[in-house]
């Protein structure tokens, strides 16, 4: 794996923190921008950034307001997040087309950035592409809304229970869950802004309007059911079923994920991409979904 280094780029809200890996010599591959879910940080992609950095510039920013990136003063939209990350990418690699991988909220941000800069973005990979019914949208928005601290720390305990519910899948220890939990705390009191922006964004309309080749990874997590309707939304979409990959998979199975990304991103034609989709998925992607679907999208109270 290639070493991952840290640096900052100047952005509209201040500094934008990045984890970057790249080969010693330019291999001719398009740079890859990785956009994390909310309220996490680019750290969730550190292992994957190192893997992809073996043959292309790979950049995982902390979205403004999370991790070590400066925060906006007011609640952003998905388009605002997209524009800010596009500007940061311009600062690192001006005038080059690039691919984007987005994860949950990052999937929406990736889609919005492709719409804002269609000539600059080449292909999209979306880890989850949730299409909510109006009722689901209202439920998710209320669950992931603002919270107030409590003297007994119950607000943290509730968040922790949610992390254990979603992250402690077979092969992931509580120590590893705790590392992800630390990242989720960096958003502070406004950590809910990313979710709020996501629930206000019309992903279905945006995907229908895009002409970019798009790979959706339908992973085994809390948005698998909402991602399924995107399968036949556009002729530009390929969907890979990966029930064995859930939260944390970009770390625990980084090499397998990189193999899938590299094969699909580097396929020269639609036919070559179809051949990638017809090939067997890595064994790690084919395990059982966890938690089981009957466990629901939210941690039990």
From TrEMBL:
Transmembrane annotation, as ranges: none
Domain of life according to the entry: Bacteria
One function term, GO molecular function aspect: hydrolase activity
Pfam families documented for this protein: Abhydrolase_1
InterPro entries linked: AB_hydrolase_1 (IPR000073), AB_hydrolase_fold (IPR029058), AB_hydrolase_sf (IPR050266)
Keyword tags: Hydrolase
Domain AB hydrolase-1 as annotated: residue spans: 31-136
Stated name of the protein: Alpha/beta hydrolase
Annotated source species: Novosphingobium mangrovi
